Amino acid sequence: MAASTSNPQPWSQRFEGALHPAIATFNASISFDIALIEYDITGSQAHAQMLAQTGIISETEAEQITTGLEQIRQDYRQGNFQPGVDAEDVHFAVERRLTELIGDTGKKLHTARSRNDQVGTDIRLYLRDQIQQIQGLLHQWQTTLVELASKHVETMIPGYTHLQRAQPLSLAHHLLAYFEMAQRDQQRLSEICDRVNVSPLGLGALAGTPFPIDRQFTADQLGFGGLYANSLDGVSDRDFAIEFLCAASLIMVHLSRLAEEVIFWASEEFKFITLKDSCATGSSIMPQKKNPDVPELVRGKTGRVFGHLQGLLVLMKGLPLAYNKDLQEDKEAIFDGVNTVKACLEAMNILMSEGLEFRTARLNTAVTEDFSNATDVADYLAAKGVPFREAYNIVGQVVKVCLADGKLLKDLTLVEWQELHPQFSDDIWDAIAPQQVVAARNSIGGTGFDQVRKALARATSILSSDNA
Q1: pLDDT digits over 84-118, tens only?
Q2: How far apart are CA 447 and CA 174, in angstroms?
Q3: Catalytic residue list contains 110
Q4: What is the pTM of this model?
Q5: d(CA 199, CA 218)
């Protein structure tokens, strides 16, 4: 049964003229908030059931509404429902189509509800779902890092500070640093999800409703963990969206930092990794090149997510209570932030799991080509009773002598060592061998091989418990 409506717009007969076509297009959000359609339908079904449960509409009417809404869901999935600009937004598009399907009963759906609490509900349902999906992708990312690290516990890599050679590390230790970052990302998202998972449904436009609704019923139906306690706050709050974009920005920071390292590692100057053809492109003019497009794009897209965070902060900073049309601008930032993070996690996961190979021979040689074991010479003297600051200055002299003679520390003779300080003996070469330098750093959280194995076991346990 179809029914015509006298007013084609989602507002009252107060208006006599139609919107200017350009303003109608400018005003409409249907081109992007259509992404909320299934969440809108789910929320509306719960609202209809509540209206029947409280006696505001009949059970028969609620069944007609929920059945009609489910038909719209299926039509949308099959490509048979594609509302245009004339619908203004997804909420009115669904309500209008529902009325076309079931007649005047469809007009009862909006009882005791405003688009303000409706959109607030939809965006929370959407973001709750997307956070769970992002956490799943983070779990896959962490699994890739652990699997890769487990293959390279005793592979060494130069460690850097200020992008200068500092001390040799276990490559696994380096990779597990990113596991820890991702674990903090997981924790942040879980905390934010608790604040996302609060229901504004039933708050109305800004002041509540005189109808005898049951907000707890709809919250339970939709899986919300709590209710907004203040109607003004509930319909205008976007703190949860800002928090999400902040967490998304930090995820991107972490991905971008590793992306930057991969770009360095793939260069001719480093030669620490080989990029596979599946994750690299060539030059249109220089046939010898293999470009690290994946990490470069991740690095570039990071700024895009930062921009969404900044945009939403600026959007909110001057808004008076309660709802303002400005809040329509939150959705594209949230949607694109979600999609960008998901795409980058997937791409980096592919890159690290199957798109590159570490050149282990080159890495293990690299840690023998510098003075990154100089601190261990100072530690060697300190262990023999020389005050560390004095030992530090002695080693500075040692390095200075080596640089003048074109030598590394390993090239000095015992006589040369002892000329610098009598405490040096023939065990100095064992003490400064890269394998020993790494192994010796066995303090909790250090790069020592035993500590790295413990860290791997801990990471594996975390991943297992997350799956439980």
Answers
A1: 999 999 999 999 999 999 999 999 999 999 999 99
A2: 8
A3: no
A4: 0.93
A5: 8
Catalytic residue among 6, 162, 284, 465: 162
Q: Which amino acid is at 367?
A: V
286: which 2 tokens? 């220089």
157 Ramachandran zone, left/alpha/beta (phi>0; psi -120 to 50): beta
Q: Which residue shows structure tokens 């990113």?
A: 178
Q: At what angle do helices 37-53 and 59-77 cross, to 10 degrees?
A: 170
Strands 226-227 and 198-199: parallel
Q: What is the DSSP letter of 9?
A: S
Separation of alpha carbons 111 and 92, rounded Å: 14
pLDDT the model gives residue 6: 46
Residue type, 15: F
Fill in the DSSP letter of residue 275: E
Element containing residue 68 per DSSP (H, E): helix 59-77
| Catalytic site includes residue 425 | no
The residue written with tokens 């560390």 in the block is 388
Instruction: Please identify which of the residues 190, 283, 425, 461 carries the catalytic annotation.
Output: 283
Q: Where are the alpha helices (DSSP H) in 151-204?
A: 171-196
Long-range contacts of 55-62 (CB under 8 A, 24+ apart): 55/212, 56/111, 56/112, 56/211, 56/212, 56/213, 57/108, 57/111, 61/105, 61/108
In this predicted structure, the answer to whether residue 3 has a pLDDT above a threshold of 80 is: no
How long is the chain? 468
3-state helix, strand, coil in the chain (%, to 5): 65, 5, 30
